[in-house]
Amino acid sequence: MDIQESIANQTHVSTTLSTHLLSKHSPNTNVVFSPLSIHVILSLIASGTKDKTLEELLSFLKTKSVEDLNGLASQLVSLVFADGSASGGPRLSFVNGVWVDKSLGLKDGFKGVVENVYKAVSNHVDFQTKAVEVATEVNSWAEKQTNGLIKEILPNGSLNNSTRLVFANAVYFKGAWSEKFDPSMTKDSDFHLLDGSKVQVPFMTTKKKQFVREDDGFKVLGLPYLQGGDKRQFTMYVFLPDAKDGLKSLIEKIGSQSDFFDRHVPRQKVEIGQFLLPKFKISFGFEASDMLKELGVKLPFDGGEGLTEMVDSSVGQSLYVSSIHHKSFVEVNEEGTEAAAASAAVVMLRSLRTNDKFDFVADHPFLFVIREDITGVVLFMGQVVDPRVA
């Protein structure tokens, strides 16, 4: 398996998920989510299926086999998500958990993948009489793994006595800018909303050179985070349409090119004229199954073939995915960025010009991406349409 090709395919899937979510489901809302988190949950589900359901998942995830998916997952955990805080880099956490009803045992092959590839701890629980308590346990797990940022990944009523399995994934990232902004220079200014009105919000500013490039109809800003003792380089990219109402067309442009991010990231620092970037904080959650069905992933949710490779029981033929819950949080300020995401899938029994001075004035809706530049892996993606709304 070629890791770069696999990551390119994974990024393509991330772009597909992101553009669909931003354009179809939440076009007028602040959004942050981790397409990677959802990718991992789908990969884990794929490892427990076969036949047409597996083919459908592999096709959507743009890969040839479960082995390739699992190889990518294990590489990402070791390559991208090792915590770098001890050596001065970003603090990172990427963890998986599985909760299975005590009446069932995981198949040996699936159990091996869960524990060895996804490094997930399997928890045997009593869904049939204690579903509410298990939901509380999963929520407490997500809160702990995301440093308190994601408090309720499973909403009330998402588990019941028909639930047999829950898969959950949590991502946490906290990075300091390699060049922090001076808080004393932060000042209020106008931000133009999609409805044509404007509001006053605090903007960070600087006179220092920045990674900025101009493209056809938009500009891109790259804000690197402090590196640790390894080669990884994490960066937040801000994609700013030229037009005040240009966010929708920019998202469509990104969705039409699978290698959009690689082709449009700024590679060198330039002199800055006017520079304004709003501080923002976003908390966003959604249930992903409807979106995935619209994108062609239907069989895991309809229970036709069942999820036959997960449990050591004929019950597997009647298992289906009832819901995939995802929550994310991001905060951007003068110091840097703190972000977290969690996903949980619930499986039930059936019954994301170098000489000139460049202006970069983000005073209208824009897109942002947090990625690791050596591999190209996108950790978080989102849009800011109103910096006042958390």
UniProtKB/TrEMBL annotation:
Keywords: Protease inhibitor, Serine protease inhibitor. It comes from the Eukaryota. Residues 15-387 form the Serpin domain. One of its GO terms (cellular component) is extracellular space. GO terms for molecular function: serine-type endopeptidase inhibitor activity. The keyword Chaperone does not apply. Coiled coil: none annotated. Gene3D superfamilies: Alpha-1-antitrypsin, domain 1 (2.30.39.10), Antithrombin, subunit I, domain 2 (3.30.497.10). Belongs to the serpin family. This is Serine protease inhibitor (SERPIN) family protein. It comes from Artemisia annua.
